[in-house]
Amino acid sequence: MKFRAICENHLFVKAYSKGKRALTPALAVYILPDYAAGRLAKAHPERRVMNRYGLTVSSKLGGAVVRSRVRRILREGLRSLERDFEVKQGMLVVIAARTPATTQKSGEIRRQLEIAFRTLGMIQHTEKDA
Question: Which domains does the chain have, with CATH numbers?
Answer without folding.
Answer: 22-120 (3.30.230.10)
